[in-house]
Design brief:
This protein is α/β, with parallel strands linked by helices and 187 residues long. The protein is built from 9 helices and 5 strands; from the N terminus they run βαβαααβαβαααβα. The structure holds adenosine monophosphate.
């Protein structure tokens, strides 16, 4: 059983590459962003709480998201592997994930960190915003999300460096070129 974290700033291609990994390896996919958007469209109490944070480009508080992740993981069919997309986004979340996986006799095997420069992120997200319908894909919120990534999320790299599982991936080029790099890293 493999546990893979796909990591990177907003617009780095985590969702796109997750789809390709799932197709090739049959892993299950957990995207905390998608879980939150479903809660919002279902108008649940949790969705209502999360909505304000998301619209402001802020992270949902750790306690809330760790609970969501735990219950999503419980419901996820995991035979060959699980890919975590958009989680962890803070060091306490990375610690919580380690504890959760330890209980299942596992650990994060690989943390794939997609590297894309700032201007490219902005242009990708603005383009996505033309069709995504996401309330957070507008220039002001995009800039905020990238700043939050640098302040709160990038330190997670150090956590996985220390664990020996950090694997930087050049996140530019065609979707297939990037995926080839991931396949190599997955061995
Ligand atoms: P994403 O779809 O991964 O871009 O996530 C969209 C938004 O959901 C983020 O900007 C956050 O507001 C929220 N979110 C998703 N995952 C997390 C997480 N692990 N921790 C905190 N907030 C999250």
């Amino acid at each position: 059983m493999k546990y893979i974290v796909i990591f990177g700033p907003p617009g780095s291609g985590k969702g796109t590459q997750s789809d390709k990994i799932i197709e090739k390896y049959g892993f299950s996919h957990i995207s905390t962003g998608e879980v939150l958007r479903t809660e919002i469209s279902d108008n649940t109490p949790l969705g209502k709480k999360a909505d304000t944070f998301i619209q402001n480009g802020q992270l949902v508080p750790d306690e809330l998201i760790v609970d969501i992740l735990a219950s999503t993981l419980d419901k996820t069919k995991a035979d060959t592997g699980v890919i975590f997309d958009g989680f962890p986004r803070t060091t306490p979340q990375a610690e919580a994930l380690r504890t959760m996986l330890k209980k299942r006799g596992g650990d994060v095997n690989l943390m794939l960190s997609l590297e894309v420069e700032h201007q490219e992120l902005i242009s990708r997200l603005l383009k996505r915003g033309e069709s995504s319908g996401r309330t957070d894909d507008n220039l002001e919120t995009i800039e905020k999300r990238i700043a939050v990534y640098h302040e709160q999320t990038a330190p997670v790299i150090k956590f996985y460096e220390a664990e020996g599982t950090y694997c930087p991936i050049k996140g530019t080029g065609t979707v297939d070129e990037i995926f080839e790099r991931i396949v190599k890293a997955l061995g």
